[in-house]
Each structure stands twice: as structure tokens, then as C-alpha cells.
Amino acid sequence: DIQMTQSPSTLSASVGDRVTITCRAGRAVSGWLAWYQQKPGKAPNLLIYKASILQSGVPSRFSGGGSGTDFTLTITNLQPDDFATYYCQQCHTYPWTFGQGTRVEI
Amino acid sequence: QVQLQESGPGLVKPSETMSLTCTVSGGSVSDNSYYWSWIRQTPRKGLEWIGYIYYSVSTNYNPSLKSRVTISVDTSKNQFSLKLTSVTTADSAVYYCAREAEGSGYYKFDHWGQGTLVTVSS
């Protein structure tokens, strides 16, 4: 299985900040990567797919980048609604695998 | 707007078989554009992909669960289901059903159910 490692595990930030979350794949996954946001008691919600394509309806303050083994999710001008846990997921090789999550907190 | 809703027992005894159903509205499980999937989440292991059914008959399972998992579809009810045999406490989790879309250079879980908590306990 391809191991996905996110850093940091927890990130403390303030409204208006620019934050970056990193996801590293155990082996190259090209651009086959997605990012999800999850709030407590809710299902994950797709933010970005194909490493950098914004899902319809997702605010443009979210952006993704990277290829191969190293990927980033950046949130500019952090909003109160953005305090949540974020997961990366590789869809290059079955079984699909997820990162352990990064919690963005105040 | 596609919606998915999980249903099934919240409590299952060890060694028994767990069965969950996902009811799809606003879309069709017969739509061969999508993979109808199950994912589970635990505090210890995080999010874990279980598998999918595609074209109503083609399945793909996580090797870690493959010997115990069956995913099937009932097109007449617009539902797909998960069966997991010989459950242990390690199978206690929130189970999500999800729709996975495929495109040029990507897959994405673009719609999810709200999740259902299954506890394995005697």
C-alpha cells in the first residue's frame, strides 16, 4: 500500500492567515491526489482533485499543488468555516489510501 | 443533487456478519459513470477505503479486507450494500458510502453519505 504522510498533524492559525499543509506519498503518484475537508460529525467533503483542480463550489482561497511524492494544500485568508481536519488521498494505486489528517485549529 | 444515505444496525456481535445499505437519491446506481464505494473511519486507523462496485457487477476490494467483504447492488431499489463477515472489535467504525467519479487523470469521491456508526460488541 502507498503510505500517505501529512504534516503537520495539528496547525494553529488565525482568521486571515495563509496556511499550508503538506502531504508526502510513499512512492510517486503523479498527480493522482485529492484533498478533503472534514468537520466533526460530518463526512469528508471534496476540495481538490488531480492535485490542483478545485472542485465545483469550493472557494478559491483553497489551492493545491505538487506532483510525484510531494503535495501541498494552501488556504489563503483563512475563514472561521475553514477550521476543520484536512485529508489527502492517493488514487494512483489500489488500495486507495488516505493521510492521517491535519487539524487546523484556532 | 445526488444524496447518499447509509442504514443498518449500529451494534453487531463479534464473529457475526455486518450488513449496511446505501440508498441513492438524485442519481442511479445503474449509472456506469461512477464507482459506488464504501469507506470507513476509526480514530486509530483513520480513513480506510473498503472497496467499490462498478457496472453493477465489477468489484474491487481492499486486500486487507477482501476475504471478508462483499459489495453488491440492488438496481430495483437504487441501493448498494456492504457485507463484512466475522467482525471483530477492530471493525468498529463510522462507515461511509460514497460515489466516486473518474476522469482524465483523476478519481474523486464527490458525494458522501453522512456516515453510520457501527460498534462491534457482545
What's the overall average pLDDT of chain A, rounded? 97
User: What is the rounded Rg of chain A?
Assistant: 13 Å
Q: Estimate the global geometry of chain B from the Cα principal axes.
A: globular
Unreliable residue runs of chain A: none
Order of helices and strands of chain A: EEEEEEEEEEE
Helix- and strand-based class of chain B? mainly beta
Separation of the first and last Cα atoms of chain A: 34 Å
The main β sheet of chain A shows up as: 7 strands, mixed
Mean pLDDT of chain B comes to 96
Helix content of chain A: under 10%
Oligomer: heterodimer
Count of DSSP-assigned helices of chain B = 0
SS summary, helix count of chain A: 0
Radius of gyration of chain B: 14 Å
Strand-residue proportion of chain A = over 45%
Order of helices and strands of chain B: EEEEEEEEEEE
Descriptive account of the structure:
The complex is a heterodimer of chains A (106) and B (122). Chain A is globular. Chain A is built from no helices and eleven strands. In chain A, the strands form two sheets. In chain A, strands 2, 4, 5, 6, 9, 10 and 11 form a seven-stranded mixed beta sheet that branches. In chain A, strands 1-3-8-7 form a four-stranded antiparallel beta sheet, with no helix packed on it. With 106 residues, chain A is an all-beta fold. Chain A starts with a strand and ends with a strand. Chain B is an all-beta fold. Helix content of chain B is 0%, strand content 59%. Chain B contains no helices and eleven strands. Chain B has strands at 3-7, 11-12, 18-25, 34-42, 46-54, 58-61, 69-74, 79-84, 93-103, 106-112, 116-120. In chain B, 37% of the residues are buried. The interface between A and B is medium-sized, with 25 and 21 residues.
